User: Fold these one by one.
Assistant:
Number 1:
Amino acid sequence: MNQQTVYEGGCACGAVRFRATGAPMRVGMCHCLTCRRVAGSAFGSYVIFDRDAVTLSGNTREWRSSEHGRRHFCPLCGSVAFMVYTDRAEIDVPIGAFDQTGLFEPTYELWCKRKEPWLPKGVRREYDEERPH
Ligand SMILES: [Zn+2]
Ligand SMILES: [Zn+2]
């Protein structure tokens, strides 16, 4: 376990960068209204790491998106940067923020009751709303 993979990425303008070390805890998609809006896209997709596995550089602004959720974004370019929680040590990093493609594939989808009808169904585990933590 002394050779750990490092994944790097950042926001669209480059002011915010991150390094994630080791395997993620899970990878998922979310169709909830907040994820749709912050990404301006049909859904959000995230790689969830232990909070300690990710180091960040650059400034972000944060807002409270739910009781325990805090969403961060780059104040310069507006990119979704990451999401953290006040009740657990996880960090959700957007798949699209990584420098490379093909690193991670989601294994589940949340908030499928908000899923766009033109998206494929039954590809991976689907939850109507949240999954239990
Ligand atoms: Zn930026
Ligand atoms: Zn969501």
Number 2:
Amino acid sequence: MPDAIGLPFGDTADFEAADRGLIDAGDPVVRNEAGQVIWDNGSYGFLTGEAPDTVHPSLWRQSTLVARQGLFEVTDGIYQVRGYDLSNMSVIEGDTGIIIIDPLISTETAAAALALYRKHRGDRPAVAVIHTHSHADHFGGVKGVVSQADVDAGRVQIIAPEGFVEHAIAENVYAGTAMARRAGYMYGAALPRGPKGGVGAGLGQTTSTGTVTLIDPTVTITTTGQELTVDGVRMVFQMAPGTEAPAEMHFYFPDRRALCMAENATHNLHNLLTLRGALVRDPHVWAHYLTEAIELFAGQSDVVFASHHWPTWGTGNIIEFLSVQRDLYAYLHDQTLRLLNQGYTGPEIAEMIELPPAISVHANPAVTAVMASRIIVLIAVPWTVIIVPRASAGIRHPDLDATNVPVRGVGHMSLPIDGRVTREIASALAQLESDGTTVHRGVTHLEPTPPRGAAGPSRDRRASAG
Ligand SMILES: [Zn+2]
């Protein structure tokens, strides 16, 4: 039953799934060569019991699930190392070696994850790496699990969707500095951990801070239905471009009845416009590819796993899980457009959208927690995410000398023609000097041209405008 805030906290199925198949929790701390800690999952040890007042109960619940770490058996011949970075590393056992899916962000965490796998499953050589998509948490650790020399010698295949390198470079090189800085804020890796600091980032606990690498793919997947057999492991691919990443794909292992959904079906509502500045995601396209995945693979799958969070087992559960995820993105898309066409603004829509019970009760309770920030992000303008509450709005900014005019009972569309607003604008404009300086507090001067000779009165007064 839903609790007081409408979320089914009594449903413990996710906790059972997140623990299922645990072989070894491993070491919570990963260091780089210099001995510096670049990952410390043990710092989240405070995540037990009821949520404290400072943390939304849904975020608390999600973080206690996501902070679980170790080597897990997903199904016969498929393993995952979870809780060793923001993302999961999956390992598929072939005839002679292993195929590694998404080697985390850093070489150090990827190497530690592989070592944990090998400790229990033997020193099997990596024969291929699959990158599900073009985000750094799915390729950055590649040189921690294979070497460029092995790839060059043909001993290791690097398999990725069409467009992988172009988009990886666009994000991590062209806009790399800005995006890395923004990712620092988005994932809070430098925050002190605790109920008043870093609690978790939803998809994973946070990002590791080690060495990021990239190896050019040797095999590019271009077509839905394309098949590939590597080391005796058969795979059928589904292209899903323009979803969570511009270059992304799902794939099915027919001999294991297992489906990998990359990052398009996780146990939350994924962000659609990231604070770090990644390309905006289209929920309509996303829903389309989830429908296609259900039609192509779900009925023949016993387990679905992804590169974040825990797997879902059982054909019926898989169809329900993927359907709810699909409905979530489709509903967001459709309702945003419906309200947009009725004349509501982004922030107004963010406050108005409510998930119908059919989606919200079945979906992970984290959905509602993420909704609060993510929907606003969905419809705000990229790069300048300014959220204006519906009830009242004003500007206070250290770089602007703004005059706020109280105007009540007027819709935003009428503001430019409301008498009180136009009077203020006219009065401000009337006091703008021809050289761009102002004589009235409340209007910032344009670049002034200094008058010849002594400074005139307008320049003196400009000082008061700040
Ligand atoms: Zn990811």
Number 3:
Amino acid sequence: MTAMLLPLLLSLVAPTALLAPVGAQDADPGYAPEDIWSEEYAFQIFPWGPHGNFEQLQFREYHDYFSMKQRMQTLAAYYPDFLQYHEGLLGGVNARGDEMTSEDYEGWFYKHSSPWMKITGNVQGGDYNDFNDDDGNYADRPDVMLVGNHHAREWMSYEVPMFFLETIAYYYGKAGIDNDGDGLVDEDGWDGIDNDGDCLLLNATNQDSNGDGTPCGPGDLGVDEDFSEQFITDLVNTREIYLIPMLNTDGNRYDREEYCGETAWENCYRSGWRKNLRDNTVTGVTPIPDVDEEVDEGCDGVDLNRNYQFEWGAPLGATGPLFPGMCYADGANNDVYNGPVNYEDNDDDGLV
Ligand SMILES: [Ca+2]
Ligand SMILES: [Ca+2]
Ligand SMILES: [Ca+2]
Ligand SMILES: [Ca+2]
């Protein structure tokens, strides 16, 4: 009942009274999260699901390429009004005049495209784009592209876009929801500030729940805990969002299936595979032929965030060395090889 009564107390009781919660007897007066908010909010149990892998849906376990893709397809099937799933790109003549096919956008080794989601209001309306094979193109809606997992080993970087996707999928079009269960609706929106002051009611040890050293700052329990669902709906309706959670499908599969394994953070002394799996032995960069079709760990791969053609290698190659690894057995790999520059999609990641 505390959670239901608190809003009333906040409006009726003098501020000093709030500093002495019932039952506090130690030197750290204040509430525990579950005293103020719903159990779901206090323990960060997300409302989406319930079908599928619970641990992954609750972001307590990493997706892999396959489960990520399956979840994207499931969400698109549930919410066809504003989500449209795509396996990759159809191809055609790109903006630079090059003829591209859908295979050009597949990874070198595992041959996956990068799955992506088109997100906008009435996504099946608007114009059709025959290069992307997507609907929902509206001249008056700005495009926003969100890309995760340039670096194969940075698994969290595709979970963040997946969390974004789950949030939008669940809350889009819903009326105001009391997200934290305190009886108030939309009282603390997304601005990194504890607008209603409830975080400050926690005991001191709970005020920095994300452990970044800043109490009641961005990311802490009680900060931005009751955003506006209408804000999400408006945001989606006025933009075309292109969400690519896992750009580096090749590298990520290799990292978790071959290079490090599923428990990489516990036992991968090499710190993980970073690049994609571009075959550097058959590109003319090195004279050494690729005698097999396997990944050559001392040679292959391009560091995707160093391969953008904008300011490639600038200044003087400082953003990335010009050569891949040693390209012989057990030779050192160059983890930050930036790949060639020729203003084409020379690393097959779908981005130029
Ligand atoms: Ca609330
Ligand atoms: Ca809300
Ligand atoms: Ca904090
Ligand atoms: Ca708050």
Number 4:
Amino acid sequence: MADSDKNQKGFTQLPEMHSKSLRGPQSFNEHADFITSQPAESKGKNADKMPAENSDKAPLEYDPQYILQVRDLKKYFPIKDGMLSRTVGYVKAVDGVTFNLKRGTTMGLVGESGCGKTTTGRAILRLSGDKTGGDVLFNGKEVYDLTKKELHDARTNMQIIFQDPFSSLSPRMPVGEIIGEAVREHKLVPKAEFDDYIDNIMDKCGLQPFHKDRYPHEFSGGQRQRICIARALALNPEFVVCDEPVSALDVSIQAQIINLLKDLQEQFNLTYLFISHDLSVVEHISDTVGVMYLGNLVEYGETDDIFRNPLHPYTKALFSAIPIPDPTVKMKRIVLEGSIPSPANPPEGCKFHTRCAQCMEKCKHEVPVQREIEPGHYVVCHLYDDAAKASAE
Ligand SMILES: Nc1ncnc2c1ncn2[C@@H]1O[C@H](COP(=O)(O)OP(=O)(O)OP(=O)(O)O)[C@@H](O)[C@H]1O
Ligand code: SF4
Ligand SMILES: [Mg+2]
């Protein structure tokens, strides 16, 4: 294939591709990487009712340096009960998440099991029905305002890679079909170029052309994840949610897949939201990191700042468990008391107060606000109220 036939991402030239991407208005504002807006309900108690959609807020302005702008995103799942299946409450899986993601970078999302990482990723991609509240601007367009047709087209541009590469691959389809199915459906390449296009993508993902006719069960876990990555990349996306993409793999294979993701990011200027339990992997791959607890981001910043200088008591506890590869250094592990509360009935005030060793009286009643403690480093904790006040004076 001649180089002139390739677009800037190295794939076959797809004339319609960029008309399919969600290009927004060209306004620019001076927002920091992380917008410090506070959830509307955060005025004392964690309200127990469905919130009104940001009606009192100014529309989120598009900033072209960000592929993704998320403001106060909420996703509640109704809890049904009784014969009439009445809604008796809500699982507040995502309860006011705000961040911006720069093009071509990776944001790591960490936190204990059940804190809402997957739901955040799925809600951004509009894969879980309606959102409960907030804004999700992708290339300046509100994802939840797209028509069915626009959303269908936008799917090529926003992809997801799942944790379990086996269950996400159809066992009855040969690999070439799995990778090419959506390419065909979206008519991304002319018929005559289809085979070359798929071969090219498979090659970029470390797969051989003869793998096309084989079935998923004939591959190892690492190869299956390569197939999933190839399937996502075949659609020429700009943004990929990677939901625990290596946790089901052997440690030796994890590094290969992480390196593959990094190489592909460099080649195609991809942007990743990288969800993982593994803090070492997140540190290795991410430019920025968000720490989630019970549906909220409690800390966010550049990877170096978060790992070298964690501020939130929850982040400190989480990071204290990272092994230090130096036998002379004694680890000071902070063990969290109690278990993670139910997102259907989160504690009032600071949601972390039931487990926090530094809990103060006001933590039990007042919801802390997000504060920028050093440039680009945000934390949601009352311990920093005075520091923020002092720097404002
Ligand atoms: N479809 C759903 N219906 C009801 N509750 C849900 C649904 N999906 C997720 N939840 C709940 O929302 C909360 C957040 O779940 P989520 O899967 O986002 O967590 P997670 O951080 O990805 O966890 P893990 O690290 O285990 O993957 C959990 O309490 C979960 O039980
Ligand atoms: S606000 Fe209070 S309870 Fe919450 S993390 Fe900070 S110190 Fe702990
Ligand atoms: Mg998950």
